[in-house]
Write a structure and sequence with these properties.
246 residues; alpha+beta; 20% helix; globular; DUF2889; DUF2889 domain-containing protein
């Protein structure tokens, strides 16, 4: 059976009041890296890299991460959305930056998330998240509605879930839940031949899909991969980079 998979790996180093975080993300549609340096509790330098991406202009969004410069380290990954307008960022670069900054704030030295969302049958699927090899979340999903378990039963992935998660869950459970939410929604793209697109849609939801550049953001044909039977390949190319220190 076809399975959508994503892996996120984060590694941090700290010396005195300064440090660096490196984070990598890979799934069927994306392969991104973000690095964050911080000093005295704030982001002092940041950068990103787009190794595999759906549209030709996605790499330009790496520069948008500079809007996070000076941000105070925050243990809540979602806090990056208060620092910058997410619709003018690459969704996945910004998510990754938020995870990296939260790891720095919590002094989490190493973290790995593994997500899998099974192929939908009659619009139903199961979405699973492992954190550091241990299963943390397993949702029964019908369309965009969570059918269980509690406390997620009845939550709609598209209607106010972020607000609910940030108020009802611990910061680290909210982080995991919002990551699984993102993956459950984007996994729906596996039902379509995305290479039939000529360019990004003008939705205004992310950097490449803004009206002023959507038609110039050409589809990167062949950029979708299938890791259903190859989970160990996710982020395999990032291991040396994650451990490298300047």
């Amino acid at each position: 059976m076809s399975v959508f998979r994503r892996r996120v790996e984060i590694m941090t180093t700290r010396a005195s009041d300064a440090g660096e975080v490196r984070a990598a993300l890979e799934d069927d549609f994306h392969h991104f890296r973000v690095w964050v340096r911080h000093r005295a509790g704030a982001v002092s330098a940041i950068g990103g890299e787009a190794l595999r991406h759906p549209y030709s202009l996605c790499p330009q969004a790496c520069d948008q991460l500079q809007q996070l410069l000076g941000m105070k380290l925050d243990r809540v990954a979602h806090s990056v959305t208060r620092q910058t307008d997410a619709s003018h960022q690459c969704t996945h670069l910004l998510d990754l930056a938020g995870l990296a900054i939260a790891a720095a704030a919590r002094d989490t030295r190493q973290r790995r998330y593994d997500i899998e969302v099974a192929q939908r049958i009659d619009d139903r699927t199961r979405a699973v998240l492992l954190r550091d090899h241990d299963e943390l979340l397993s949702w029964a999903v019908n369309g965009t509605l969570l059918e269980g378990p509690s406390p997620y039963t009845g939550i709609n992935l598209r209607e106010g879930m972020a607000r609910w998660a940030l108020s009802a869950l611990t910061e680290e459970m909210a982080e995991a839940a919002l990551l699984l939410r993102r993956c459950t929604l984007i996994s729906m793209g596996r039902a379509y031949n995305l290479d039939e697109q000529v360019h990004a849609m003008n939705t205004g939801l992310c950097y490449s899909q803004q009206s002023e550049r959507a038609e110039q953001a050409l589809r990167m044909k062949g950029s979708t991969l299938d890791f259903s039977d190859k989970p160990l390949q996710l982020c395999a190319q990032d291991q040396a980079w994650l451990r490298q220190r300047d």
